[in-house]
Amino acid sequence: MSTGFLMFLYEPARPAFLQVIEAVLVGILFSILLIKTSKFEIRNQQIYMKRSKAFAFILIGLLLARIIFKLVIGDAIHVEELAGMFFLLAYGMIIPWRISMYINYRKIEKELEEHIRTQPLPMS
């Protein structure tokens, strides 16, 4: 996604400051769905992410929200500017989700280490 920021070198793709704030805040709001449905589990002394049945619905919901936003505000905002706003929305959604995933991973990792430490060694 870091190369996506190059779009902002193109003047028409730069949203106004208020639009940037709006896009990032909506992204943070949408990230709550991802955070709530993303869980880790321990299997065979390894950490795995559980598959979420809600993921497909969230993805489709985001697509529908994007289409609705585009239809509603597409006439008021230029296409390039709208593309920049959707990029910022996605970035505003992914960053909090990744931070949350990292924090949750570290918690599960500590639980796994504690479990391994307290588990008796097998006798040969």
From TrEMBL:
It comes from the Bacteria. Keywords: Membrane, Transmembrane, Transmembrane helix. InterPro entries: CcdC, DUF1453. The keyword Transmembrane helix applies. The chain crosses the membrane at residues 16-35, 55-73, 85-105. The keyword Transmembrane helix applies. Pfam families: DUF1453 (PF07301). This is CcdC protein. It comes from Halalkalibacter akibai (strain ATCC 43226 / DSM 21942 / CIP 109018 / JCM 9157 / 1139). The lineage of its organism: Bacteria, Bacillati, Bacillota, Bacilli, Bacillales.
